[in-house]
Amino acid sequence: MSQLYSMQDVLQNNGLNGSFKLVSEMGTSQPNWDYVESLCCLSVKNVSYTVSEHVGPWWDLPSFRKKWTRQILNRVSFHVDSGQIMGILGNSGSGKTTLLDAVAGRIGNSGKLLGEVFVNGRKLKAEQFQDCFSYVLQSDNLLSYLTVEETLTYTAQLALRKHSSEAIRKKVTAVMAELSLGHVAHSVIGGRIFPGISGGERRRVSIASQLLQDPKVILLDEPTTGLDSMTTNQIVVLLAELARRDRIVIVTIHHTFLAYIIHILPFSIISVFIFTSFLYWTVGMNPDPVRFVCFSAVVMVPHIVGELLTLVLLGVVQDPNMVNSGVALLNIAGIMVGSGFLRSFKQMPVVFQWLSYLTFQKYGCELLIVTEFYGLNFTCTPLAGLPGSCLMDSGNMIIDQGYPGALSRYTQDFLLLYAFLPALVILGIISFKIRDHLVRR
Ligand SMILES: Nc1ncnc2c1ncn2[C@@H]1O[C@H](COP(=O)(O)OP(=O)(O)O)[C@@H](O)[C@H]1O
Ligand SMILES: [Mg+2]
């Protein structure tokens, strides 16, 4: 994919002001289909959608008078150029379908929609949406008794009424070739009761029926949901290919918790290694490659824990800003309670001593101190040194003073530190499952 945004990226994308200024200066002259023929770009600016409903039924007047409002989209902006495919990632209920509906002008009038959609830098009016976008819905609405060719021909007859039957036949053949459906042209679609073409082929027929009108912008709502990974891959390659032929393709992708992790993890690992390589050697830590690897392995955990914790909380709390500051505060609390840097464990109230065992900072800090000081011997020059400098003549003494017993707990600390990762993954899966369940209901 040439562009892949997560829902948060899209929501927080504010870097488009320059191009939008230009857009508004160009005025709002009417785009029509001919002008859209040479599509350059699609911009969406500050789309917000809020719904409000009465709290109670109409016969319960006091609660009927009260309304709750819910903001589903909050100032979403993005820009896509022709030839690009954009993925909108999010879990259930994150507002993917609502965003596509808003962009395509399909949103009902049950809520308040704000924002603008620009095609080639010109603002679209409500009646022009239908012409500009093709929308492939999440579920395939196909008639099971028709063959693939019949399905496409009937759709084309309805959609391209002004065209001759010869032109329609050619169009159907071309679209079937483009989507590699030629070999199943005469197979029935099929349904639950009798077998037909495969799920991936059915999805391709849905896409094909939208391609008949030669749309320049194709919106697809979760085209890969419910397909196996092979078919998903085929569909994504196909969509990227469609985009490459001077179209804009926007897809929403249902992201599970595990998919998030697979998406983030390689980048986390690489970025931590870049970070520690720079930090370790410039700050002047113990110049031993093995200790450097241990140091990186320890620093890796807080980083990934931070990401996982953010995801876990995102499953429960909708607001990403709240989640970000919550994670930062939890980290600071963990350092205060767990690290032993500010107060030694013995000096803390018993409750906090117990709580410290629940913080990854406790294990991380012990490991960092041991990694740095283990086995060091200091040469003592009492006259040149500071007062008290000769009290400690070995690294092990420093460790024992601050973290008694930490030397013998090295492996155990590593295990406990890394145990936070699977624990958070499990917590995340549970939190996402609960959320999916609630949203479905
Ligand atoms: N018209 C509406 N009235 C009330 N709630 C709505 C309306 N449209 C969408 N929602 C809510 O907004 C949230 C996002 O919905 P949707 O866009 O369908 O999410 P997604 O496609 O990412 O699963 C859901 O919780 C849904 O219930
Ligand atoms: Mg949806």
TrEMBL record:
GO terms for cellular component: apical plasma membrane; ATP-binding cassette (ABC) transporter complex. Keywords: ATP-binding, Membrane, Nucleotide-binding, Transmembrane, Transmembrane helix, Transport. It is found in: Membrane. Residues 42-301 form the ABC transporter domain. The keyword Ribosomal protein does not apply. GO terms for biological process: cholesterol efflux; cholesterol homeostasis. SUPFAM superfamilies: P-loop containing nucleoside triphosphate hydrolases. The chain crosses the membrane at residues 257-280, 292-316, 322-342, 414-432. InterPro entries: AAA+_ATPase, ABC2_TM, ABC_transporter-like_ATP-bd, ABC_transporter-like_CS, ABCG_transporters, P-loop_NTPase. It is a multi-pass membrane protein. It comes from the Eukaryota. SMART domains: AAA. It holds the Pfam family ABC2_membrane. GO terms for molecular function: ABC-type transporter activity; ATP binding; ATP hydrolysis activity. Belongs to the ABC transporter superfamily. ABCG family. Eye pigment precursor importer (TC 3.A.1.204) subfamily. This is ATP-binding cassette sub-family G member 5-like. It comes from Sinocyclocheilus anshuiensis. The gene is LOC107666370.
